[in-house]
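Researcher: I've been going back and forth with a colleague about how PaaI family thioesterase might be arranged in three dimensions. Neither of us has a model we trust, so I'd like an independent prediction. The organism is Sphingomonas floccifaciens, in case that matters for your notes. Sequence below.
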Amino acid sequence: MTPPDGGPSGAEAHYRSLESLYASAPINRLFESQLTIPAAGVSRIAFMLDERHFHAAGAIHGTAYFKMLDDAAFYAANSLVTDRFLLTTAFNLLFTRPLGPGPVVAEGRWVSGHRRVLIADARMIDASGEEVARGTGTFMKSRIPLAGLDGYRSTPA
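Model: Here is an independent structure prediction for PaaI family thioesterase. You can compare it with whatever you and your colleague have in mind.
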């Protein structure tokens, strides 16, 4: 059934609402980034990094790697959960090469779990198409209803 305004319904509405939730998070004011959820269990975050994200030796600091990999895996998992906000309970990172400024994509993918705990992984790809890092996370359903979060809209504008 299509909503009266002609907007998305069902899973599509959930994906757009999660994208809205991501965009509304105050932390994302520090990162030029955009989340898209094309299908259940899949997410993609395109972001731009610059010198503000460098460590003292002139490359991107590990916090940027963690943030984008965790977010990509998290949203891939939360795309399968329509009622509750997930919480990261563990996350493992593998850094494969240093990253400089420029565009980067983090791709998330659900791996397993449906009830209370979900596992998802993510990888970061630089502008040349090389993988620069990957991670795997464990996510647990919280008591926080998605519908109660300001950024989550059941019928996004």
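Researcher: What would you highlight for our discussion?
Model: I'd start with this: Residues 62-78 form the longest helix (17 residues). After that, consider the following. The radius of gyration is 16 Å.
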